[in-house]
Write a structure and sequence with these properties.
Elements (H helix, E strand, L loop, with lengths): L11 H4 E3 L7 H7 L7 H15 L15 H6 L10 E4 L2 E2 L10 E2 L1 E5 L3 E6 L2 H16 L3 H7 L2 H11 L3 H26 L8 E8 L3 H5 L8 E9 H22 L2 E3 L6 H7 L6 H7 L4 E4 L5 E7 L4 E7 L8 H22 L14 E7 L3 H9 L3 E12 L5
Parallel strand pairs: 6-7, 12-13
Antiparallel strand pairs: 1-2, 2-5, 3-4, 5-6, 7-14, 8-13, 8-14, 9-10, 10-11, 11-12
Helix pairs in contact: 5-6, 5-7, 10-13
Length: 398
Amino acid sequence: MPSESSKPIPHVEELLVPVSPERGYADYLAKLAEFLPHSISQFGLVLTTAAELRQTPGKQIRSKDPNQSEETASLTGLLCPRPPPHYLSIEMPITTAAEAGSVKTLIDVTISGHAVTFFPRCEEDLMKAAIDEAAKIEQLDASKAADSATETNAACYLKKATADPVIVAHNQNVRILLSSIVEYLGELRAGGGRENSQHEMFYCVNDVWMPALRSLGNLTKGTRAVKFVMTEKKLLENEAAVVQDCERIEREEGLVLGPMEERDIQQMINVNAVPYSEHYGRHIIKTSQCFRSKSGEMVAWAGSHEDFSVAALHVLPAYRKMGLGRLVLMRLALAHMRLARSILDTLGADAKSISSETLMAHADCIDDNHPTMVFMERCGWTRVGIHNWIGLLTSSAN
């Protein structure tokens, strides 16, 4: 019998089932919602896909809302000549351990023009096992261990991953799927359906799956970030106060809120902790908010990543302690929620089952940026875990 490593890798089409654009994404999101916020980045990429489908010839999906605001309409201009596929994996049966024979791995995957994200639905249960183990080792209660979101939890998970047959089997299934995805991306690139790059970028990978990625090849340095979320319900509760504060800032300080522009890209890149290309900077400003002085200088700003997480939040030193960071953050998050609802309203009745307490704005903060983490929590955002943005070097890099 051939060893696991010598078996041929199944093709993506054998492992993944596309989520039908014709049916829309709302019914799928309704099913995925019970796993939020654990799959929040995946959720954002589904919305990105839906927005792109709206703008693609032959796939026009128009809003049912005749009163759609000009601001919301402008946020949907995400033209993509080849819409990214969104997939739901088949239930991959675990066969590597007899005692785990009834367990199955269900994985959600989005392949966009620039990146891949995947969410194994067993993730929460496996992390809970690690947290419980961390609580025993550190003699802490489970809630404190979970809140700390430290290296300890990932280390305990990895320890269990080498001994627990169920976790071992889930990891094996994830490796098989990722191997298939990497081969599929190579096919897309070779066929001209994907830009020629030296690596494949993976968004928001939970710490627990990093060994599976490492097993496929060399990883770039990447970015490790803490995920923060805020519910639509909480954002709407604060909206009136945020609008009033923006009006006061304009009246008293002469600072006007509006979108970022092409001329702002280099300024944003120059001060950002993570280096962005000018090309990606153009994407970030598509959905953005900033305050400008009377002279037109951008003094506080925030934009959006591909997965609709908040990007590049910054306030110039001379303008701090005025509340500008909180205001651009909240106004941008509200814009994300309006866009999400606008898209969902066009894509199926099941969108109504995604409650205001489940739909969430999200943001990532580099894991050593403690001042920003404190700022996010003061603004009312909740910390939900650590994820990695990582590149996987492939053979095409040679």
